[in-house]
């Protein structure tokens, strides 16, 4: 169906309004926590009525879903950045080299909000489902990226080994976000040399195991 100018305008306006609500909710959740934040507080921060909030989001869980979706899109853009920077070359080298953006990426991440969402997921099944679905999407995208990296080397990745490596690396980077809360004076840049070494070793180990498996056949 062809969109009319009026329809496109309404959709654009709705997108702006949704973003306005998500920004306000983000500020409220960060300051007061999920449980202590009310829709009334969000409406005041957004500068719109409670009715308008419910027009775009059914409840606070739906607002969290919107926030998680925004974060998910940023991670997927990160994956595309790696593919683009590899320019058809070695994706593993591109992944390691991308750590030059690590400090900026960490500074742009809203760590207090992320921790608040994860904490809520630990006690709220609805939020847990949202967070887990996003994580599954991220893990799948990284598995696809690693599989592509191995294919470019003429290798076939071992699915079990891949999952284990990605989970360990996820724990490492999630843990660094926690370290910035425990130690706010930490400069993320100081971690980059060690991260380069750990990431390169983990990914090259995957390639080595894939090469051995290929040779055995």
From TrEMBL:
Domain HTH tetR-type as annotated: residue spans: 15-75
Annotated Pfam families: TetR_C_6, TetR_N
Superkingdom assignment: Bacteria
Keywords annotated in UniProt: DNA-binding, Repressor, Transcription, Transcription regulation
GO terms, molecular function: DNA-binding transcription factor activity; transcription cis-regulatory region binding
Keyword Nucleotidyltransferase: no
DNA-binding region range list: 38-57
PANTHER family in the record: HTH-TYPE TRANSCRIPTIONAL REGULATOR PKSA, HTH-TYPE TRANSCRIPTIONAL REGULATOR RUTR
Protein name in UniProt: AcrR family transcriptional regulator
Taxonomic source organism: Rhodocyclus tenuis
């Amino acid at each position: 169906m062809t969109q009319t100018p009026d329809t496109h305008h309404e959709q654009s306006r709705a997108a702006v309004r949704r973003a306005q609500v998500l920004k306000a909710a983000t500020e409220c959740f960060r300051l007061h926590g999920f449980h202590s934040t009310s829709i009334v507080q969000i409406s005041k921060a957004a500068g719109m009525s409670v009715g308008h909030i419910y027009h775009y989001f059914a409840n606070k869980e739906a607002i969290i879903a919107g926030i998680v979706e925004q974060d998910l899109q940023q991670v997927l853009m990160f994956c595309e950045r790696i593919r683009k920077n590899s320019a058809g070359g070695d994706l593993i080298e591109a992944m390691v080299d991308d750590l030059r953006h690590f400090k900026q990426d960490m500074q742009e991440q809203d760590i207090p909000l992320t921790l608040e969402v994860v904490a809520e997921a630990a006690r709220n099944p609805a939020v847990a489902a949202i967070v887990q679905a996003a994580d599954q999407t991220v893990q799948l995208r990284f598995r696809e990226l690693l599989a592509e990296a191995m294919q470019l080397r003429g290798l076939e990745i071992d699915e079990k080994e891949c999952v284990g490596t990605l989970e360990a690396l996820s724990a490492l980077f999630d843990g660094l976000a926690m370290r910035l809360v425990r130690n706010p004076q930490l400069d993320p840049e100081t971690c980059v040399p060690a991260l380069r070494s750990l990431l390169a070793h983990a990914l090259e180990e995957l390639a080595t195991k894939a090469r051995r498996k290929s040779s055995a056949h």
